[in-house]
């Protein structure tokens, strides 16, 4: 397989940030941690990884824009292209020594996500896709699952933390979904949740109150793996709304009817 120059730049940046995060993960007790909001943490590791991604991605493509979770916002000379980056998705897992977190990098062109990389350094799994080129995990093509029966399927989501007001909605989702499926997981990284739908590990995923950097790379990876991914509000915008639903093609309708209460 041959990837475009941009995808190679993204993979190289993800690996470099990954090395920095793995080092910090081994000495997690020495990180300075602060809270941005209730239950929403940021550490020196998140900021260091964002700086590496900024240097690598902007160094290679100085005219593109850049949006990163930890405060980097650059309006590029080229207004049509923008990197959208989550330097560490799963900070809470990371700070608790749980090896389930990732780096997420997307490239947006004229409002569409055209390339995405989600890298899990602890497992050395690099999920990636480019529009029209299929989705990959390391050197393997990946596909969304082929399951067709709700009762055999499993789903991932995020649970509202720190007293968030969307708790009743999520509890309603769970009370309607749990009786008709094989299980729901909350592993703590929205980016990996989407990568796992693309790889056929989960049959679907939904979450409210996310941000562009949590979702962007996953959009193209799920689509290129043959999955369906949409904003939770069918009239909304998938990147800016921060509310997303995705599943394999066979189950999407049944699953989305439950979550959308349609
Ligand atoms: C979080 C993770 C988590 C999701 C949260 C996100 P962060 O991202 O994706 O799974 O439930 O809503 O904020 O803050 O660890 O990058
Ligand atoms: Ca965060
Ligand atoms: Ca995130
Ligand atoms: Ca993050």
TrEMBL record:
Any one GO molecular-function label of the UniProt entry: metal ion binding
Catalytic activity, EC: 3.1.3.25
Protein name: Inositol-1-monophosphatase
Catalytic activity annotation: a myo-inositol phosphate + H2O = myo-inositol + phosphate
Cofactors required: Mg(2+)
Keywords: Hydrolase, Magnesium, Metal-binding
Positions of Mg(2+) binding: 69, 86, 88-89, 214
Species this protein is from: Pseudooceanicola algae
